[in-house]
Amino acid sequence: MLPEEILTNDHEQLARFAKALGHPVRVYIMELLSNQTCCFSGDLAEDLPIARSTLSQHLKELKAAGLIQGTIEAPKIRYCINRENWEKATRLFGQLFQSTPKINDECK
Amino acid sequence: MLPEEILTNDHEQLARFAKALGHPVRVYIMELLSNQTCCFSGDLAEDLPIARSTLSQHLKELKAAGLIQGTIEAPKIRYCINRENWEKATRLFGQLFQSTPKINDECK
DNA sequence: AATATATTTCGTATTTTTGCGAAATATGAA
DNA sequence: TTCATATTTCGCAAAAATACGAAATATATT
């Protein structure tokens, strides 16, 4: 038996996903990608008030967290959601938010 | 009419919540608080492998994001979830994750 | 008032994040 | 091969996050 870990892999994984979503631009991108299958970096760059290199970094971070993936469609790159991890994130966040905390008078 | 904002208040708010959840210790705390109504900082400090001052900072951050609130119960402090904002977070994350992205062959 | 307990704030150091423009890379078209 | 387009990486700077121990604060108890 392993020693009881307080901080589990799920905690770590959820924190990683949450951190990746911890910037409005990245929330915007994930929202977009979860509604319309894919998009090009250029389309985002036109809408968003940030430099292309900055956008690129945000995309990189989402990719590092496993939330998106890119496929070359020269000369562009098509970005899509990583369905498997998105579902994992859906499950983990869903778990966290599933239980409505009980009302507690001491805490007004 | 205001100019169409790309990054909305909801994006900002969700990012703020996500950022607050972007650390395993804070995920652990919120998970705990969403299951059992309240807890004391000391109880957390005993379980978690971090200094009390570090824990205090994490709690402060969760409080700043509006996810928890503390009430003095001297000499301890009882921390509880902020139900209103937790529900807001539940709604915002729920919205983000509600739509399962369509399968897309180009993105294997 | 003095003591003990619980927690936070302060000061500091290190690491990470965020952002930009310039330069580099990759690829299709001429 | 050269040119044009799309995107990323690099180099830098500024800001924020993370962590710790020591000191400060707050409050109940003696």
Can you walk through the features of this model?
- The structure is a homodimer of 108-residue chains.
- The first copy, chain A, has 108 residues and is an alpha+beta fold.
- The first copy, chain A, has one domain (15-94): Winged helix-like DNA-binding domain superfamily/Winged helix DNA-binding domain (Arc Repressor Mutant, subunit A, Orthogonal Bundle), CATH 1.10.10.10.
- In chain A, 56% of the residues lie in helices and 14% in strands.
- The first copy, chain A, contains five helices and three strands, in the order ααβααββα.
- Chain A has a three-stranded antiparallel beta sheet.
- In chain A, strand 2 and strand 3 form a beta hairpin.
- In chain A, helix 3 packs across helix 4 (52-64).
- Chain A is elongated and about 50 Å long.
- Mean pLDDT of chain A is 86; it is low at 104-108.
- At the A-B interface, helix 1, helix 2, strand 2, strand 3 and helix 5 of A face helix 1, helix 2, strand 2, strand 3 and helix 5 of B.
- Chain B binds a DNA duplex (30 and 30 nucleotides) through helix 3 and helix 4.
